[in-house]
């Protein structure tokens, strides 16, 4: 890390509206966990599980709640939500290089593309005809921006991102390396055992404040646009098929796959490895747990799961074999109930209700 | 969309051999669904589920069957298979840029590589020694084509595709952005708890009319070639390990993983998220449903599945706990049957067969 | 294949310390399986399943054990571990191009980056400020190496690899095309239904002799570094989230996803498609079978699994339906046991213990 920014505790307190306990002139040059922080690093206590590390921390200061501050002898920034305030302050200490405005001489920009003078276009970037790159946008090295794409103000694309033609992106959108937006979806019509390609003539429309993870893929629409709402956060290696719509502020962890034309509501949380079939609808405020296979629409908010729990492999083999016998077993239980009813009625009458 | 191609309904009818009902001079400038089409867009009715939208569509004309055409008052192109004819006409309205022939000055082409003069090589492309780029091939920006690769006539590679050395590709093959073909497979020999790399000296051989999705990876063979048959369609983020063989006209949806040396037959359909272990064989005409774990060879055509159905999380927790107890429960049922037999034989004789 | 290296059997025997049976002057120009080898190719017998092909092989010579050599009439290299010796010799026949040292004129290297004169930097590579490229490192075409990265001696990066800033890589590390190391992990704090980004200020630290597969992603740490131990082998399309730690000599097959802050021990083997939740610990010497969902820490070495076995789809539908009824069925079995106890006690006394 080369970051050498330093801040007084008083200035940090002002930024997050904290009650400062201790030395306002204490200098802070970094962020770290309670266990790892040194005497010039700020830390935070957001999870009661880590409270045990508070007393012995070497941190310059700690972001914590009123309750946790009680009895703490070090410097403290007392706030209602330490995790959120840590999120806010974290950007002060980010060692991510901040490129200067301008177009690198090795970039290839189409004559009729519009690049805002405040944008930063790195080495090897290709921008095609009719594209618009907004103010304060950063295009990392070797990005490809297809014809007629629009990237709104403040966008940040890491190195090696692909936008096919006709991808429209809102403001302050972050796209990690290797992501591909606007690829041609999986559209084929069967003709006598062969697959005939269907041209994918829609685009992709992405809202404001979206984040898209490394090597995530979002296909363009077959006819109308694939749509990603405002504030949506997509982790790495997610696959979004053509015509999918994702509602505002929904978050998906890594390795999720959403099949074509499925619509997902707002404020949903989809854990890692989940798969959804196509042409279904998920309502707002749904949580789906890791590696669940979603095979039907969800119309009620709440938590949903599938799969089986991990076992030692020897036990698992027995369970897996029994699952295949389940239908037979269910019928045997039914038969037992019938027989027992005969027995009890025959020998004890109807004494059991 | 910048596409402004327009066609008369009569000319479209001729292309798909349709019976034209209505105005042959009607101009068509695009394609859309029944609900979204405007007065200059062609639509289609291929799924009876959408028949309800037919009466009120604003489409310039609709591709439909004789049966659906009955009573329809708008312009119609009557065909036996509307979906297939939509597929065929869709390419007329594709806004995908069509690059002109020639090599961009920033491309780096090895002296002894052969590039057909009708091929189009975009900015930043690298083509290494001994490669052959066939007629009418398009290499998108920043593609890498390794030594001795062969790309057959009419191939279309999006931006940022990697072909390692010794990858041979048939005619009319489409490869989406971020795909990697010919990477070194996962071959290691164990030596006292450490892994020794095995050189991957085979190549990859891909047939005609194949499509390979965004960020899909296909490893080169360890000794002989990994092989993808004619007409195979692979969606995004699929992983094909070394030595795999995929039969002609098999299609795989996104996020499928095929382990090393597995052979898949012809005309199979593998749904999203399926995983297959290595060294197995799948016969022709097999359908595997989404997220199935294929742990053994399949020798009979048909449909196969694994996994559990989604439930509300609270119910799922109970099911998952019960699955771990299944072996015990099966033994309890067996015990019940024994006991009941004693009871019934003891008290009622052998009255129940 | 253009590889024309040739070796005498005697020289190969010396390299792997083999007992040579047959003609020491036999020339070997390649490697192949027993079935496919021609008269100038070396083969090997490592798996008794393939013993049947030994007698009829056309191979120039065969690597095999003393036991298998008995009665074999062809040329043989007799060794204790044929598979390991095949691994060792395989590199002699690798057709992978060996680039010469130096920086391609189209590469863009920051003024203060240090590139060892023995390193090979291909076309279109970008190396940013403060990076160190060690001796005999190969950077394939269009790689991006971020600020302050360090790549140790002998590293080999395929085309189109991304290293974000502050990624430190040991010696002899192999990274396949499309891999992304150091991307910003999925860190967000919730604020009134919206997600606020947490800067990811840690780096990534990778040991010696690591291999990282095509399109695999490894996120940088949120605060401290994500760590990959020595000798770790990661296959294609693996996702490693922020703060994960992987112990030495652990291997993971393709499509595995590891969530944030999880720690995996040494010498583990994780099969394809496995998912692990965050913040758990896996001890040394654990094997996890394909597509298992690991939802809790593992503290005992051994094999672990989850999931259900594949069935024909019609049978599977019944099993899946029965699984949802399992809790009810378990209660019915319990009820049967109670009732039967009443029956047997009532009619037969306590004759059954």
UniProtKB/TrEMBL annotation, chains A, B, C:
One of its GO terms (molecular function) is UDP-3-O-[(3R)-3-hydroxyacyl]-glucosamine N-acyltransferase activity. The active site is at 242 (proton acceptor). One of its GO terms (cellular component) is membrane. SUPFAM superfamilies: Trimeric LpxA-like enzymes. Coiled coil: none annotated. The keyword Lipid biosynthesis applies. Its EC number is 2.3.1.191. It is an enzyme of class 2 (transferase). CDD domains: LbH_LpxD. HAMAP family: LpxD. Catalyzes the N-acylation of UDP-3-O-acylglucosamine using 3-hydroxyacyl-ACP as the acyl donor. Is involved in the biosynthesis of lipid A, a phosphorylated glycolipid that anchors the lipopolysaccharide to the outer membrane of the cell. Belongs to the transferase hexapeptide repeat family. LpxD subfamily. This is UDP-3-O-acylglucosamine N-acyltransferase. The gene is lpxD.
